[in-house]
Specification:
It is a single chain. The chain is of the alpha+beta class. About 40% of the residues lie in helices and about 15% in strands. The chain contains three helices and three strands, in the order ββααβα. The two termini are about 15 Å apart.
């Protein structure tokens, strides 16, 4: 689980991703190009600039212990969405 937080507004975006290595680079690349698919996050990024955002890892799970990656990611996203109520 990763989180991108707008440090000015404290709005948060969370995602369950199978591989967190270099994930922040992936988000920055797409957001800086104006090509990220989540429009609320993209609009906030465009309005506030890259310096207003912080990336963090909320949770890691050993992939070797996961039987069904897609279901596990879906369940993790639902659990964390209920827990922190992201705005994006």
């Amino acid at each position: 689980m990763i989180q991108i937080e707008n440090t000015r507004t404290h709005q948060r975006f969370i995602a369950a991703v199978p591989n967190i290595k270099n994930r922040w680079v992936y988000y920055q690349l797409n957001l800086n190009r104006g090509a990220y698919h989540d429009q609320p996050l993209q609009r906030a990024w465009d309005a506030d600039g890259a310096e207003a955002f912080a990336y963090s890892v909320l949770f890691k799970k050993d992939a070797a212990k996961v039987v069904n990656m897609r279901a596990t990611l879906k369940d993790l996203l639902a659990e964390w969405t209920d827990r922190i109520h992201p705005e994006y």
